[in-house]
Amino acid sequence: MKITVNGEAKQYEQAVVTVADLLVLEQVASPEMVSVQRNGDFVATEQFETTMLEDGDEIDFLFFMGGGSITDFLEL
Amino acid sequence: MDLTEQQIERYSRHILLQQVGYEGQLKIAQGKVLIIGAGGLGAPAALYLAAAGVGTIGIIDADVVDITNLQRQVIHHTPDIGVAKVTSAANKIAEINPDVRVIQYHSWFSPDNALEIISDYDFIIDGTDNFPTKFLINDACVMAGKAFSHGGILRFEGQTFTHIPGTACYRCIFPKVPPKNLVPTCSQAGVLGSIAGMLGTIQATEALKYILGIGDLLTNRLLIFNALSMQFRTVPVKKNDNCPLCGTNPTITELVMEEQPTCELKTK
C-alpha cells in the first residue's frame, strides 16, 4: 500500500488497515501524543482504530511541541 | 502622530520597503503586542519587535533569570541572573529603543487575568513552555477574538501557526492537553539555542505583518521545521467542526487551566 506520510511517499509491505496500524508501523509511542490528518481532515483519537486507510492516502502526523522558557513553572 | 526626523532615520530601512513606508511605520508605532513568557521564544521576539519600533510591548513572566536560560534567552545577559525576567527584558528594550513603552506583568498568565490582560493588545505571542498555558492562551484569544502566534520548540525542531478570528485554533489541531510526561519539555529533552531564535523571529514577523496588514499570515497552516535536515514544511490545517472550543458544539465555554492527566508511558 502506498501512503504519503508527512509529505513523504511510502510503500508499505505490511497490511496497513487503520490509522492505528500506521501509528504502530511509524513507531508513534502513544496515540495521545499525535494529531492525525487524513487527506486534510482531522481524525479524532477515538477513531484511530476504526478509520480505514486507502491506497494513495495522505496522512499527516502533527506532534505536540512545547518549548519557550526552561522552567516547568506550573506543577500541574 | 508624526515621526521625528530621528525616527525617520532610525526606521529608514523599514520606510524604504514599499509594503511598509512611512504610514506602515506609524502603524508599527501604534501597535501593541503582548509577549507571554520572556524565555526562549519571547526573548528574540521582544528584541526584534523593540528594534522595529512597536509602540507598546507587554511582557508577562513571573520567573527570574537562571544561568540555564542564557544559552538561548538572548534578551537576558549574565549579570541578570536572579533578576526578574520582565525587568531584565524591559531594561534591554529601553536600551535598544527608547520609543517603546514596555508594560511589565510580573505574574503568571492565568484564567483570572487572561482576558483582562489581552484586551489591551492587538496581537499576542505565545512564548510559553507548558501545555496548560498554551491552551489557556488559545482559549482566551479565541474567546476574545484576538490574533495570536503559537510557537513550540523541542530539540532541533520548531512549529508555529497564527490564529486570527475565524481561522483554525490550537484546539482544532490538538483538542486537549497531552498527558503529563508523554511529551517531553525542553528542560527534559533539551533544545538547540538557535532554534528558539528561528522560531521567535518568525513569531515577531507574524506580529509585524498583522500590524501592517501585509502578506499572508500563517493561518490555517502549521509550519514545522527540522534544523538538522533544515527542511521546512507547511501543513494545511482546517478549522475543525469537532473543535471543543470553536467547533459547532463547543464544550469549552469558560477559561480554565486544563490539568495534564498523568501518564506512565516512557518516552525515551
Topology:
The complex is a heterodimer of chains A (76) and B (268).
Chain A: E1 2-5, E2 8-11, H1 19-25, E3 34-38, E4 41-43, E5 58-63
Parallel strand pairs in A: 1-5
Antiparallel strand pairs in A: 1-2, 3-4, 3-5
Chain B: H1 5-10, H2 12-15, H3 21-30, E1 32-36, H4 42-52, E2 56-60, H5 85-96, E3 101-105, H6 114-118, E4 123-126, H7 131-144, E5 147-154, E6 157-163, H8 170-173, H9 186-189, H10 193-212, E7 221-226, E8 231-236
Can you describe what's shown?
The complex is a heterodimer of chains A (76) and B (268). Chain A is mostly beta strands and 76 residues long. Chain A is 9% helix and 29% strand. Chain A is built from one helix and five strands. Chain A has one helix spanning 19-25, and strands at 2-5, 8-11, 34-38, 41-43, 58-63. A five-stranded mixed beta sheet of chain A has the order 2-1-5-3-4, with no helix packed on it. Chain A starts with a strand and ends in a 13-residue tail after the last strand. The model of chain A is unreliable at 68-76 (pLDDT under 50). Chain B is of the alpha/beta class. Helix content of chain B is 34%, strand content 17%. Chain B contains ten helices and eight strands. Chain B has helices at residues 5-10, 12-15, 21-30, 42-52, 85-96, 114-118, 131-144, 170-173, 186-189, 193-212; strands at residues 32-36, 56-60, 101-105, 123-126, 147-154, 157-163, 221-226, 231-236. In chain B, strands 3-2-1-4-5-6-7-8 form an eight-stranded mixed beta sheet, with helices on both faces. In chain B, strand 7 (221-226) and strand 8 (231-236) form a beta hairpin. The longest helix of chain B has 20 residues, at 193-212. The A-B interface holds A 6-7, 29-30, 32-33, 35, 37, 40-42, 44-45, 60, 62-74, 76 and B 37-42, 61-63, 66, 68-69, 73, 85, 108, 126-134, 151-154, 157-159, 172-175, 178-180, 182-183, 185-187, 191, 196, 199, 222, 224, 233, 235-238, 240, 242, 257, 259-260, 263, 265, 267.
